[in-house]
Amino acid sequence: MMKKLSLAMAVLLAGSLTACTGNVGKDVSKEAQTGESTTAKSEDGSSGPVTITFNWWGGDSRHEATQKAVDAFMAKNPDIKVEVNFGAWTDWEPARALEFQSGTAADLSQINMDWISNYDANGDTFLDLNTVSDVIDLTQYDSALLDRSKDSKGGLAGVPIAETGRIFYWDKTTFDEAGIDTPKSLADLRAAGATFKEKLGDDYYPLTMGQYDRAIFMTYYLQAKYKEAIFSDEGKFNFTEDQIKDGIEFIQSLEADHVIPSIKTIDGDGAASFDVNEKFISGKYAGILEWDSSASKFKKALGDARELVVGEEFKDLADGSNTGVFTKISMLYAISAKSQHPKEAAMLLNFLVNDPEGIEIIGTERGIPASKVALEQLTKADKINPMTGDAHKKVLEAAEFSMSPKFDDSSLKGSTGLYTEVFGGVSYGDYSAEDGAKMLFDGFSNVSN
What we know:
The protein has helices at about 5-25, 60-75, 90-100, 115-120, 145, 170-180, 185-200, 210-225, 240-255, 265-270, 280, 295-300, 340-355, 355-360, 370-380, 385-400, 420-430, 435-445, and strands at about 25-30, 40, 45-50, 50-55, 80-85, 110, 160-170, 285-290, 310, 325-335, 400. It is an alpha/beta fold. Helix 2 (about 60-75) links the parallel strand 4 and strand 5.
């Protein structure tokens, strides 16, 4: 459903964003320094330079690489000027939502997967990229990924930039101190909980999980056990309230077996994320379930004194053969359906994902690329972090399902979402497993098609 914002809210948001973004999120024009230039045909057939707009969010390294790529694109296409707008994630989506609704979105945008259903419900916000397939080399993408990127009318709403999934990372140093191998199965993990408590102490755990991590691992368990996705490809919620209760009880059994600390314990650590949590950094929390693209961040957090290794996806969550693992498209590039220069926007898009120069500049700033030619080029050039590459390979090999954008609906995910409320509340003892199951069942049903 299209997110509806009142005019008053739109004005307030726009004013707030203007006041707060400063130099980070403001429009930054990037013009090629050229001598003689060729000219492009504009939409009305007249000749002259063309200006297109491009926006994205991210951190400083992504900003730097993307601006460099834009400069390189303009150097190759001196008749096209690209004006860019970039910033951090905070307040980014509300600003873009206003633009999508008002028809003032950038020609080219970096988008999240759920933006297709949230802002393109009628299939008229994002251009069907099949109409510019003579410019964008769509043959570089797996057809299944492209199918997952379609809008309600069957049009290709975006080009997948990267695919990602979660996998275990283990602090091997702590497991060595406990005298055991890193877990290869759920049975190993449960046994490690008892060993850690006995040999290392009550404040050592083989794994730690926040509320969203628990929602994902619960889903792996349910999908492995019941052999169907939590949401169908059409967005229909597939599980019963009793099945959700089963999943919550599975997560709570990990607390009971000293596999994971309670949410109260984690909250007491006072850290915003595990990569800055002293208990993870010191090895007291010896495992995490994280995105395959996050390997470098957590390895860096541990430093040279500790050894972080990529784990395995478990096949004994249910009957010993299914992993329940799902993957998701982490982000996409989309062109506004109202763009006056869709061909030029498509040229920039293709440069970023399929052109050798663009591929080299962008690297893995947006994850391991979904483009086959980009993956091949970066692999041959040894530009993919070996640990990240290993994690990504294991995730793709183990994956059995595609993660629906419904799973990350704002009513479920985030600091005020149901995952935080339910898994935190059950862990604290504020809710029973039955209470939590009803809340999650209702929440999943509300976002279901």
